[in-house]
Amino acid sequence: MSIPRLVVAAVTSGAGKTTLAAGLIAALRARALRVQPFKCGPDYLDPSYHSAAAGQPCRTLDTWLLPEETLRGLFRRACRDAEVAIVEGVMGLYDGRANGDLGSTAHIARLLDAPVLLVLDVAKASRTLAAVVVGLARFDPRVRLAGVVLNNVASERHRQWVAEAVEAEAQVPVLGALPRQPDLALPERHLGLQPSWEHAELPTLLERLAAQVAAHVDLERVLALARSAGPLTGAARDPLAEAEAGRSVVLAVARDAAFNFYYQDSLDLLAAHGAVLAPFRPTTDAALPEGTAGVYVGGGYPELHAEALAANAPLLDELRARLAAGMPLYAECGGLMYACQGIVDFEGRRHRMLGVMPGWSIMRQRRTQLGYVEVEALRDTLLHRAGERARGHEFHWSELEGAPEPPAYHITGREPPHEGWAVGGVLASYVHLHFAGFPPAAARFVAACRAWQAEQISE
């Protein structure tokens, strides 16, 4: 299989990767090209802009969450109908887990044999930046740093100084230069970018980004760079192709302003096993979707919508009754906050939630956990069997009051070492999982929903 592809990388976070990638995707789509977007790393927010720009879901590429062969398999699946793939990197080009290579943008570029387009923030320097590009190009000869786009250019003279130095000293072509334009910066909040679905003028923003990229980046040369990538090689495994769909069953998935953090390939894997994914809005819907046999509540911003969540008594009552009857619930990060006794928001106000697990989730004024983890199941749960290990990621500003018993996981090297809560058909944890990284979890979740539904019918 051969697909034109390139990776958008940077020296540091905040250099303009997301802005350039979203603008590039939108500009190529405006040329009637089918663009498949990807994002390196575990982030949920940047992909929301790429999904909107491409008109189709952005996929996650992460070599901590996913084995290498699975990453390649999911990449190939997503690109089957695409004409070009744009991959936004994570952090700086060579930044990986524990200050190593694993999970870095460079690692993923090598796995995909994709050329790298570097977005270079030139706001506070000129010729010195050529030395930075030289260092990046020589640091790992296996990474093909094939082009540069300058960002935050102050003037035509500034552009000329930097471009001439980079091309002369680093021997890397400069394919564009974006002028300094603060009003095109993407808005942020405590977990990163403001979600795209909350941006009141998102279509207009994407149109402006597309116009900016089309005016200041040589799209023909960018496409030629993407087309220079050879055929995809290396072992590939597609867990969706291996899934065995049984009898279909309705799995309600929380999707609204409070809950929207999901990996698209995780959802697709659940569907491949027979789940009919039915979205519902915990902030406003009075009832679960018809025929619901299980519920998946992912991450998001429940702390910002706690008042509306707490006020939706009809839905809370229905959920409590169904969960008391054994209906499966997987609650992840923000979902855990919804499943516990309640949320204490940034102002110290208490909002009662589902109350199916002990403890309150208390918002802090700083991050309480951030980073990759490996969990070991302490008991059989909805997704895992005792002793099984799975990889995940944490990023939250809240913490649970006390240590709910019985915990779901043990995390080596972290204090406290216990994480999550698991009783009956409920599994709640702060850890974000990618189901394609441990495919049995998706199969077990759907099977549990199917079994519960059968019990209700037999009664």
**SS field, number of helical segments:** 14
Kindly state the number of beta strands.
Answer: 26
What percentage of amino acids are in beta strands?
A: 25-35%
CATH architecture of the largest domain: 3-Layer(aba) Sandwich
The total number of structural domains is: 2
Radius of gyration, in Å, reads: 23 Å
Structure overview:
- The protein is globular.
- The protein has a seven-stranded parallel beta sheet, with helices on both faces. Strands 12-10-13-15-25-24 form a six-stranded mixed beta sheet.
- It has 14 helices and 26 strands.
- The protein has two domains: 5-227, P-loop containing nucleotide triphosphate hydrolases (Rossmann fold, 3-Layer(aba) Sandwich); 243-458, Rossmann fold (3-Layer(aba) Sandwich), CATH 3.40.50.
- The mean pLDDT is 93.
- The chain has 459 residues and is α/β, with parallel strands linked by helices.
- Helix 1 (17-30) packs parallel to helix 2 and helix 1 (17-30) packs across helix 7 (202-216).
